[in-house]
Design brief:
It is built from seven helices and two strands. By secondary structure, the chain is mainly α. A two-stranded antiparallel sheet has the order 1-2. Helix 2 crosses helix 3 and helix 3 (46-53) packs across helix 4 (57-91).
Length: 151
C-alpha cells in the first residue's frame, strides 16, 4: 500500500439486514413485529400501537399472542439443552486423562468461591449500592439515545 492510499478518507462500511424467527407459519420477529412492540412501548396500548403501524387491532393482538407463545417455546428448548449439557458435562465419563488428573477445589479456592457467592447474593438482595454507581452513566446513555431518536 502506498502512503496516498492510507491517507485517503474512506466511507464507512455498514452492515444491514433483518432477522426474523419462524415456527411453521407463525413469525416471532421481523421488522413489522419489532415496530409493533416499539409502538406499544411508546403509546402504552395495543390499540394505539396498531393504529401507529397501520395494523388492525385483531392483527396486532394475534401478532403479540404468537410472539408470547413462541417465546415460551424458546425457553423450553433452552432449558432442555442446558439439562442435556449438564448431564454430559457433570455426570458423563471423563474422556481425557489430563482432565481426570485434575484435583478438586482446595480450601483457599473454596473461600474465594464462597465470598463471591455471598457478594452475588448480597447484590441480588440489595442492589442499591451498585445501581447508585451506575445510574449517572445510564441516565446519560438514555439522554443520548432519546436525542438521537428525536433527530
Amino acid at each position: 500500500m502506498t502512503d496516498e492510499s492510507r491517507s485517503t478518507p474512506h466511507e464507512a462500511i455498514e452492515l444491514g439486514g433483518s432477522v426474523w424467527l419462524r415456527s411453521g407459519e407463525a413469525t416471532l420477529g421481523g421488522a413489522a413485529r419489532i415496530a409493533l412492540l416499539a409502538a406499544i412501548h411508546q403509546t402504552g396500548s395495543i390499540t394505539g400501537a396498531a393504529k401507529a403501524v397501520g395494523m388492525s387491532y385483531k392483527a396486532a393482538w394475534d401478532a403479540i399472542d404468537t410472539m408470547n407463545n413462541l417465546a415460551g417455546t424458546t425457553l423450553v428448548f433452552g432449558a432442555a439443552y442446558t439439562l442435556w449439557m449438564v448431564k454430559r458435562v457433570i455426570y458423563g465419563a471423563v474422556a481425557n486423562d489430563h482432565v481426570a488428573a485434575l484435583k478438586d477445589v482446595n480450601r483457599r479456592e473454596m473461600v474465594f468461591l464462597v465470598l463471591l457467592a455471598v457478594a452475588v447474593l448480597a447484590m441480588g438482595v440489595y442492589p442499591k449500592p451498585l445501581s447508585d454507581v451506575m445510574n449517572p452513566s445510564i441516565q446519560e446513555l438514555l439522554r443520548h439515545v432519546s436525542q438521537s431518536k428525536a433527530l
